[in-house]
Amino acid sequence: MPKGIGWDVDAVGLVKPGDASQRVVDWAVSKAANELYVQSYPVVGHKAVSAKVNNYPDVEGAMAKMDFTQMGNQRSTVLAAWSERYDSKSEPKS
User: Fold this and answer.
1) What are the residues whose beta carbons fall under 8 Å from the beta carbon of 66, sequence distance 6 or more?
2) Where are the beta strands (DSSP E) in the chain?
């Protein structure tokens, strides 16, 4: 298991597509929106946006090193292991 603090991923998506909702999603992932986000938290999704946030430690430097490509390639194996280990605790499927 890698050492370091864990990752917390935020996401945005559309449940019911529409012009207004698409504009909100487009803005949420834009450089301008990330420049606002980075004022409160030092790690954002836009590669061209970064900043040091006062009173925050070096969050990005402390994060566990993760190989997301490898994790994606092993997705089915990981999901099968997770299901085998934890599905017995899930609500019954109807």
Assistant:
1) 2, 7
2) none
